[in-house]
Amino acid sequence: MPLRFFNTLTRQVEDFMPREAGKVRLYTCGPTVYNFAHIGNFRAYIFEDLLQRHLEYRGLKVDRVMNLTDVDDKTIRGCRACGMALADFTAPFKKAFFEDLDTLRIKRADHFPEATAPEHITRMIGMISTLIEKGHAYRAEDGSVYFRIRSFADYGKLAHFNPEELRDGVRVRNDEYEKENVGDFALWKAWDEADGDVGWESPWGRGRPGWHIECSAMATGILGPELDIHCGGEDNIFPHHEAEIAQSECVTGKKFVRLWMHCRHLQVEGSKMAKSAGNFFTLRDLMEKGWSGREVRYALISVKYREPLNFTFEGLAAARSALQRLDEWTTRLQELPKGASGENLMETGDAFGEALDDDLNISAALAVIFDMIRTTNRRMDEGTLTPGEAISLLKWVKGVNAVLGFEAEAGAVPAVVGELLARRAEARAAKEWKLSDTIRDEILATGWIVKDTKEGQKLTPAPRGGA
Ligand code: AMP
Ligand code: ZN
Questions:
Q1: Residue 393 host element (H or E)
Q2: What share of the chain is helix, strand, coil (3-state, %, to 5)?
């Protein structure tokens, strides 16, 4: 069966073939580094990780770019509020982002370009100049440059709307009075006082790039004018990706992206994640509550990317027990008495891969795994599973883990300790110190020492034996 994915551009599931045989050029919008990424962002990054790993599982070579947005309104506001230089303000969030990727076992992209890198700023300025020359952009009086959406007949093709609707009955906001059309978007924003010392010189005066041109410049600069796949969360469809298409295609004259893939937003306990609603979680918040990166990964990957995912603590607990089941089964297979390895091998089939070929149908893929676990556990209970079959199954699950990344780490914290940590975090939040100490001792009895640090509870393995 060929690979098939839903294309936001055509609203259809289509067969996928990269332009160059065997090689996929993939661009994924990365984080704005003004804060720690939240678990909604990680739903998007984990969906993209699943996509990349599955393409690789199918033998394709993936060249992937994930940008870091390190200059925009939010990063500038943040550094000004702290009285810091922009680069000093964003540096710790970049570092945290990479740590979080590792915690969640998200494969590193091949390139992580930063918008403020001189070569990318130069490329953005070059693209804007070309757009002005070709009549697709114009300079406003204050030195800002806008894209003229009227100049691009395809504008609206990704989000599936008619740009005429943007013009009717919409009042142009005062601060945008210089725009020809309400839908025109900024390619270059002229410097103003709120920008402090953030700014670059350009043919139109001092200023900074708009967010959309950042991605167009980094994508085409690294991957060339024609990408195979471009991903993001659903909020990116409009205006961000619509604008990327307009800018890139007007500069290069080529079709920018063949396949657009977007994941639905993560909801938390049934509603939008918001700091004010108290349901806003970073990965670090969940680790502090005793959940592991692997468990969060499972919870975020286990619902198909195009379906709404409601994040709940019951969902995390279900992820924990599913992984426990997988671990127990794997251990059981490993502990089966070894026989001659070449005998009685098992045909494990490709149902897992075929489920993912079908627009990353993860529910079907997980069903294949747990069916396999159920039937072979039964055979191990009966004592009829041969060592050769166990070897085949271990090889199969290795392939599964190359895509899903669910393997247990050597020396990993067992799930039961995770549960104890979670209970201890609750006890401490409720200032029940005695209970907290009792749980600490229970954790010690399992071979782990828990310490309370500024970043929360930290585990280290207890020294074994004698002393
Ligand atoms: P940002 O840092 O806001 O630019 O977002 C980075 C990525 O996370 C983008 O691809 C967004 O579409 C995606 N994203 C943001 N919020 C959510 C959410 N609640 N669920 C899924 N993806 C999201
Ligand atoms: Zn982007």
A1: helix 387-404
A2: 50, 15, 35
Q: Residues lining ligand 2 (ion), CB within 5 A?
A: 29, 215
Give me 109's structure tokens: 């992209």
What does the block give as tokens for 228? 């195979």
- Residue 28 Cβ inside 6 Å of ligand 1? The answer reads no
Please, is 33 exposed, middle or buried when counting C-beta atoms within 10 Å of its C-beta (0-12, 13-18, 19+)?
Answer: buried
Residues contacting 324, CB < 8 A, separation 6+: 415
Is any atom of ligand 1 closer than 6 Å to the C-beta of 41? yes
Cα–Cα nearest to 309, from 44, 97, 66: 44
Q: What phi and psi values does residue 412 have, to the nearest 5 degrees?
A: -70, 155
- What is the rounded CA–CA span in Å between residue 352 and residue 258? 26
Backbone angles phi, psi at 111, to 5 degrees: -140, 135
Mark the ranges of the chain whose per-residue pLDDT is less than 70. Answer: 166-177, 338-342, 411-412, 414-415, 464-467
Residue type, 426: E
State both tokens at 25.
Answer: 């050029």
> Do strands 185-190 and 145-147 pair parallel, antiparallel, or not at all (unpaired)?
antiparallel
Cβ of 266 less than 6 Å from ligand 1: yes
Residues 132, 86 contacting (CB under 8 angstroms):
no
Give 203-230 as a DSSP string. TT-SEEE-HHHHHHHHHHHHH-S-EEEE
pLDDT digits (tens, 9 = 90+) for 320-374: 999 999 999 999 998 887 655 557 788 999 999 999 999 999 999 999 999 999 9
CB proximity list for 353: less than 8 A, separation 6 or greater: 54, 57, 58, 403
pLDDT for 329 equals: 96
Helix (H, G, I), strand (E, B) or coil at 356: helix
Task: Give pTM, 2 decimals.
Answer: 0.88
